[in-house]
Amino acid sequence: MHRTVTAEDLLGRMAQNEADFTLTFRRLCDAAEDQRNDGAVAALFADSLSFEEWAEKWHDRLSVEPRGMNEQGAAMRAVNPLFIPRNHRVEQAIAAALNGDFAPFETLVTVLARPFDDQARFLPYSEPPRPEEVVRQTFCGT
To answer: Nearest-CA neighbor of 80 among 27, 34, 43, 44?
Structure first.
């Protein structure tokens, strides 16, 4: 019998450990296929042990699923994007456009047109902002 594992528990641990929402769920796709990929997810957590405790129960739960590990990972990858319009990237594109440079905007549009695809050359667009890139207020005022 598997131990109880919930999304609410994971979400709480993510919030407590400031884990990036998008990257956590995307990296879980790889972890579903191979438990050795757990480290990439755990690295997103301030306290990796918090994720590891949850992941142990999650892998137990996955082991009783009728789908194979590769099918589980593929199904998760189909609904968990790698690329989202992160505020710092949008702000960079706006700032450049205001100066007549539309290349950052065009690149952002290209990346976001295929958010679920692994686009190796655009991996920096999947990353959260560095501390100096954090947007405190967006162009629309939120």
So the answer is: 27
Residues 6+ apart with CB under 8 A from 100: none
Overall number of domains in the chain: 2
pLDDT tens across 101-111, in order?
A: 999 999 999 99
Count the Cβ atoms, other than its own, within 10 Å of residue 125: 19
What does pTM read for this prediction?
0.88
68 shares its domain with 106: no
Rounded CA-CA distance 108/90 in Å is: 8
Q: Domain range for residue 104?
A: 87-133
Number of residues written out for the chain: 142
Average pLDDT of 81-92? Answer: 95
Cite the DSSP H helix spans in the chain. Answer: 7-16, 21-33, 38-42, 48-62, 69-77, 87-98, 103-112
CB 60 within 8 A of CB 3: yes
Task: Tell me which amino acid residue 96 is.
Answer: A
Distance, CA of 126 to CA of 140 (rounded, Å):
22
Q: d(Cα 59, Cα 36) in Å, to the nearest integer?
A: 11
